[in-house]
Design brief:
The chain is an alpha/beta fold. It has helices spanning 12-22, 70-77, 109-119, 124-135, 148-156, 159-171, 182-195, 204-217, 260-267, 351-357, 361-383, 398-405, 440-456; strands at 3-8, 28-31, 42-46, 49-53, 87-89, 93-97, 101-105, 198-200, 221-223, 228-234, 237-243, 248-256, 279-288, 301-305, 319-327, 340-349, 390-396, 429-431.
Length: 460
Amino acid sequence: MKIPLLVIGGGLSGLAAAVRVARFIPDVLILEKHSRIGGLNSYFYRNKTLYETGLHAITNYASAGEKTAPLNRLLRQLKLKRNDFSFCQQYQSEVTFLNCESLLFSNDFRLLETQIHRKFPQCIDNFQKLLILLDSLDLFSPTPFRSAKKILTETLGDKLLTDMLLCPLMYYGSSHENDMDLNQFAIMFQAIYLQGMFRPLGSIKTFLDQIINHYQGFGGSIRKNAEVIRILHNNRTVFGVELATGEIIECEQLLSTIGYDETRRLISDEPVSLQPRLGFTEAIYEVKTVESSKLPEDKTIIFYNNSEKFSYKRPDDFVDHSSGVICFPANFHGIKKRNVSEIRATHLANYTKWKTISSNRDKYKALKAASSHKTLACVENIVGNFSSNIVYQNSFTPVTIERYTAKIDGAIYGRPEKIKDGYIGFTNLFLAGTDQGFLGIVGSMLSGVSIVNQHVLPKL
């Protein structure tokens, strides 16, 4: 018997696509290579404590009454009840360019407008022009790459403000070096600045479990540790997949959420010409809460740059510590304070250098430790000292991300060129997820939903 829909990849995009189809046809199967669902947004345990991977915050916050907002449209498409989730909004976040300027923003867009009016008064009229321009764009139509940086610089007339507005959006969604596609910028501008950030009460595991249980309630199935090694096809029609065990699973429709080039490698043995990709390191510090602590209690995320020129590109060295992201996962409304708190720091990294040295485990571990120590110094320079109160720390490199997600080069945002319509040349194989172009958790899930709505459900 052929499976009506096979989904390769158990990340949030694949999970959402599977839920959407399982509402109407229950015989949907997700094949996940790893032992845990979630993909880039998953979790692990150390010392019986759960730590999240990937999740800093979810973008695209909307109140329950905003019916057309992406978050609420997503919940309706998946037949999920808003009241079944507890969402915690950010306090406020900050973009700080050291020795230059800082901007606060929150889920109330008026805060950012007020900050720009006060700190960049010469730009406030041009900022309103930018808002009108962004609102006029047809965000999801296939268009050639247009430089967001160029258009922002021309519209705002201020390079510092341009870089400061770009910084959070790049770190949370750009696969291009030192730039973004204009449409992608507009999507992320709406997601982060106009709508804002939040996280589920509890952990990413709680969130995943709710969706998995919902999916299985419709009759959908998941197989973990089920690595697909080949997509079986005849000309332009797929008829199944082969697993690493040699098992063949036949299907009528196939959705891949693992990335464009990752999918092409399963279709053909021919070498794939790879586009340059961006990698990241992340350090986690669990800190004992003490009364003398000076850590920010009113900021959720800090995006920083401490060099004369903001650079968002693959560094020449292992890690570029000159800019990055500092996240306080407990600094959201509604999250109770604990006796320990977590600090996460993200930097751009050079995958090739990390991959080369990873063959020597001792050198690799020593370099990870040195990089984490340098990250600690950078973070303390911005938020205050906390090293004496660290009770646990860990760090990931692009090699770690590649190992646990199978993303080429450990690139969490995939290849720069996106396949917006999900069509990759087959009659019944389509692409969703990072390389389709919707980023962030809500965006990734909407990617899965929109592609099956467009290509899969009409044929089943």
